[in-house]
Amino acid sequence: MRLSYPTNIKIIRVPCTGKVDILHILRAFEKGADGVYAVGCLEGECHYNSGNLRARKRIEQAKIILDSIGIGGERVQMRNLSSAEGPKFAQYALEMDELIRQLGPNPIKLASKKKAA
Amino acid sequence: MIVADKKPIEEIIKEVENYSKILILGCNECVTVCEAGGKKEVGILASALRMYFLNQGKDVKIDEVTLERQCDHEYLEEIRDRVDKYDAVLSLACGVGVQFMAEKYQALPVYPGVNTCFLGVTEKRGLWTERCQACGKCILAKTAGICPVSRCAKRLLNGPCGGSTNGKCEISKDVDCAWQLIVDRLKAIGKIDDYENIIPLKDWSTDRAGGPRKVAREDVQL
User: Mean pLDDT, chain B, as a whole number?
Assistant: First the structure.
């Protein structure tokens, strides 16, 4: 397929989205990520039955926390696809890139730079 | 176990926003099991507060420690040598732990990070329900192992009342009638005849009505 997607997206591989914890998401923002999205298998098709459903709940939790501390919950998203859907993977990447560009950079990153200066 | 629930981050922020060195202190016991104040929740809260203060342009140092328990001297002593480095402690233990921490470290402001709710069980992950009110005089032997003090809205010792419908309490369709449960279980264990025995007036002096309580056991005191 040789599809392209934005190069600013860094992929962190996990055995299942069920491995993704709220803390992992928060640490990513603490370290300056502008957005985080988890891409899991289609709902109902998790190899471990409920990993992707757990991930969705954790993403929702992370959204609430990020909203309450003024970072913005929209910066974290959950997406689902099957491993045969390459074009959808690229599409999600483009959508996320666009969404984050609209929201602007992570305010933590700017605050850290100001602090260091 | 003691069941607690998380406090909203906004409420916690209001309490601690004027401090610059904060220790978030978790507890490895009950609040870990009910996912409100264990090591993981300490990590999440610390990360959220660090980001909040950084975003506000404030330089706040936030450290994380989780003790085995906060209701015993020996575990709280573990932080004595470093507690001077902080100007406030945010304890994610139950109300017992928060108070014992405050008692032991007289000059250090201590804030609660959870709402302590009740003594209960984990019915399933994410669902905790009340089972005991620590009334100090257990009557479970007479009520087939189901407590009407904690599970009957009226704390009736001889029930049910007229508000019991199809096994549910009149306060909510989601609440089981404790006395229906008791009668069902008395039948199941072949002791339904015991239902005829009237439970006498309860001595509530061992409940909170008698003021703060204590258990003093000279046989185990050193």
Answer: 96
Strands (DSSP E) contained in chain B are 2-6, 21-27, 61-67, 88-91, 110-112, 114-124, 127-132, 168-169, 172-176
**Confidence class of residue B70 from pLDDT cuts 50, 70 and 90?**
very high
Structural domain boundaries, residue B106: 2-118
Option in B10, B13, B47 nearest A30 (CB): B47
Average pLDDT score over residue span B48-67: 96
Q: Render pLDDT for B156-199 as a digit per residue (tens, 0 to 9).
A: 999 999 999 999 999 999 999 999 999 999 999 999 999 999 99
Residues in B whose CB is inside 8 Å of some CB of A read: 8-10, 13, 40, 43-44, 47-52, 54-55, 57, 59
Q: Do B51 and A69 touch (CB under 8 A)?
A: yes
Could B55 and A30 be called an inter-chain contact, meaning their C-beta atoms sit closer than 8 Å? no
Whether the Cβ atoms of residue B136 and residue B147 lie closer than 8 Å to each other: no
In this structure, are B77 and B169 located in the same domain?
A: no
**Distance of alpha carbon B2 from the chain centroid:** 3
Q: What are the C-alpha distances in Å from B102 to residues B4, B96, B97?
A: 19, 10, 8
B9–A22 C-beta distance less than 8 A:
no
Q: Report the CATH number that the domain containing residue B94 is assigned in CATH.
A: 3.40.50.2300
pLDDT above 80: residue A117: no
Task: Encode B197-222 in three state secondary structure.
Answer: CCCCCCCHHHCHHHCCCCCCCCCCCC
| Minimal-distance CA residue of chain B relative to A63 | B48
Reduced to 3 states (helix: H, G, I; strand: E, B; else coil), residue B114 is strand
pLDDT, tens digit (0-9, with 9 covering 90-100), for B14-24 = 999 999 999 99
**Residue A5 forms part of a structural domain:** no
Overall average pLDDT of the B80-99 stretch = 97
DSSP B62: E
Report pLDDT digits (tens) over B205-220: 999 888 999 999 999 9
